[in-house]
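G., the chain you wanted modeled:
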Amino acid sequence: MEQKTDVQKIILFVFITVSLAAFDFTTKQIIVSTMKTGDVLWLFENVFGLYLLYNTGALFSFNPSQYVPFVTNAHLFLTFTVLALFLMSFFMLKLDLAKQKLLFCALTFISAGAIGNGLDRIIRPNSAVVDFFLVDLGFRLGPIPFDPWPIFNFADVFVNIGIGLFILDSILNGKKEIVLKND
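Predicted structure as tokens:
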């Protein structure tokens, strides 16, 4: 199979990343326009449903501004998002796509998720992210702050898929070094 040029790789990366981020944005817009905060629409018994929540925190509603003085959540999250996208793009450019398809997909999914939630931080009131998937598996986790389970969105799913693919790539290529192109 012929190796893709850097331009083709960039086009593929941008196309997939933007498509996934656009899908995430569209689903959030549909939820925001059809539900009110706190409404629940059960899709599968009382296990899986839709629940509109505006999340101003980070992972599991973590609020870093409580621990980092003089910094707002919005500034911290946007700075982190820009740095993450820069690093993802840098590593993507260095990959040998013919040999590292799984890692390329991982970087693409993580980037799409970062863009999806980063866009929410820019356009939504209070720099909140729209979360709407509710999963209740019927068990309680005690004092952990999410009960029944964290509410999430497609951007979160994309980041988790990307992390899973990254771990899978690490397992499959365990002792191999990352193949970076020499410029």
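The longest helix spans residues 6-34.

Shout if anything looks off.
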